[in-house]
């Protein structure tokens, strides 16, 4: 930690239970978020005569989209992970990064309705924010289904087209 970070860290002694001094952290930092993407609703799956993925099922064939969620709209350096089940094991399939996200890359914070379940206030990343993350892709599993999905969803060609259907990771060069 540099001198500035140490000084700030020392000033936080006794405030560990309060999240306000940490969000946003004055000297920046790196935030890490993960998503497994979104699949069709049970009703949409029934209409399409497809089985909705269950716990442990690989989701790539049914993915509709992906995003990251936050309890705030102040993220400066984000490492975004996308995961899926591979052979019934949760596995990272892609990693993205952006240091250029701003307030507008996050949707309006939605607060739960009274008695509306166990959810908390949340902001969902907008399509322009997702595109910034896509443009900063770091690594993707060497499986054409994933690179194809990310390229198609973002109307881009940033990720290399793989000939493989499963395997190791491919990184940026």
What do you see in this structure?
- It is a single chain.
- The chain is an alpha+beta fold.
- The chain has one domain.
- 20% of the residues lie in helices and 21% in strands.
- The chain is built from four helices and seven strands.
- The strands form two sheets. The chain has a five-stranded mixed beta sheet.
- 19% of the residues are buried.
- The model has no long low-confidence stretch (mean pLDDT 87).
Task: Describe the strand arrangement of the main beta sheet, using strand numbers.
Answer: 1-3-4-6-7
Class per helix and strand makeup: alpha+beta
> Which value, in Å, is the CA radius of gyration?
19 Å
CA distance, first residue to last residue? 29 Å
Number of strands: 7
**Into which percentage range does the β-strand content fall?**
15-25%
The overall number of domains is 1
Q: Helix tally? A: 4
- The 3D shape can be described as globular
The largest sheet, given as strand count, sense and whether it forms a barrel, is: 5 strands, mixed
The percent of residues in helical segments reads: 10-25%
Describe this structure in a few short sentences.
The chain has 173 residues and is α+β, with helices and mostly antiparallel strands.
What order do the helices and strands come in, and which of them pair?
Layout: H1 3-11, E1 31-35, H2 42-47, E2 69-70, E3 78-86, E4 89-98, E5 123-124, H3 127-135, E6 137-141, H4 144-153, E7 169-171
Parallel strand pairs: 1-3
Antiparallel strand pairs: 2-5, 3-4, 4-6, 6-7
